[in-house]
Amino acid sequence: MEKRTELYRGKAKSVYTTDDPDRLILLFRNDTSAFDGKKIEQLERKGMVNNRFNAFIMQKLQDSGIPTQFDKLLSDTECLVKKLDMVPVECVVRNYAAGSLVKRLGIEEGKELLPPTFELFLKDDAKGDPFINESHVVTFGWATAEQLQRMRELTLQVNDVLKQLFDDAGLLLVDFKLEFGLFKGDVVLGDEFSPDGCRLWDKETRKKMDKDRFRQGLGGVIEAYEEVAQRLGVPLS
């Protein structure tokens, strides 16, 4: 597989074209950002940890029948993925109250949400990824009603699989965001799943083991990511 030109450079990943028009290479960088890019740092080993973490999670999801963009690892920081026509909508599941939900609704942090909530946000950094509803998605043509329903179904399936996976590792899957795209007409899970895009707490202590350590200046960000990976059995070398 020949790596060619940089197609897109995000806050923490770069996307490259290949000699196969249906495949891309994702490069996980050490860049770490928060608050829509207002806080940025380089964290040693982060690209490697997130790349291998994502590969492990995507394989678990594929084994459970969930279609994903992921094809295979190429190196410590790169993986091969299908080229998707991305839907500009983030699907968010919350199992426990945290983050923006607490701020918006005044819910106590850590409150278990039964059933879990399902929310939608427009993926637009310039607008601050605004909160949207299903009607917006269909009306403005970001996805069809059928595609949106499939995205919701897959998101809740992912939650069922990963809640159990993290529970077995002594962790609470507090919340997470997913992105989807179309591959040959089918809705497929895209982007990544790593501690950058979810909240994970230790079941016993409620210690934060995710990107909130960076957002809140708690320190030990990569050490927490590596501990989560170790508990799950993610091979980091």
Can you offer a commentary on this structure?
Belongs to the SAICAR synthetase family. Keywords: ATP-binding, Ligase, Nucleotide-binding, Purine biosynthesis. It is a single chain. This protein is α+β, with helices and mostly antiparallel strands and 237 residues long. The chain has 2 domains: 3-82, Phosphorylase Kinase, domain 1 (2-Layer Sandwich), CATH 3.30.200; 85-232, D-amino Acid Aminotransferase, Chain A, domain 1 (2-Layer Sandwich), CATH 3.30.470. It has helices at residues 46-63, 100-105, 134-139, 145-168, 212-215, 221-232, and strands spanning 3-9, 13-18, 23-28, 31-34, 39-42, 70-73, 78-82, 85-96, 112-122, 131-132, 171-183, 186-190, 198-202. The strands form 3 sheets. Strands 8, 9, 10, 11, 12 and 13 form a 6-stranded antiparallel sheet that branches. A hairpin with an 8-residue loop joins strand 9 and strand 10. Helix 1 packs parallel to helix 6.
- Total domain count: 2
Radius of gyration: 17 Å
User: Given the helix and strand composition, which structural class is it?
Assistant: alpha+beta
Unreliable stretches (pLDDT < 50, length at least 5) are none
CATH class of the largest domain: Alpha Beta
The ordered string of helix (H) and strand (E) elements is: EEEEEHEEEHEEHHEEEHH
What is the overall number of helices? 6
From the 3D coordinates, which CATH architecture of the largest domain would you assign? Answer: 2-Layer Sandwich
Report how far apart the termini are: 22 Å
Q: What is the overall silhouette?
A: globular
Which fold name is given in CATH as the topology of the largest domain? D-amino Acid Aminotransferase, Chain A, domain 1
Instruction: Tell me the total number of β-strands.
Output: 13
Helix content: 25-40%
Q: Going by CATH, what is the homologous superfamily of the largest domain?
A: ATP-grasp fold, B domain
Largest sheet, strands/sense/barrel: 6 strands, antiparallel
- Report the average pLDDT across residues: 96
* Strand coverage percent: 35-45%
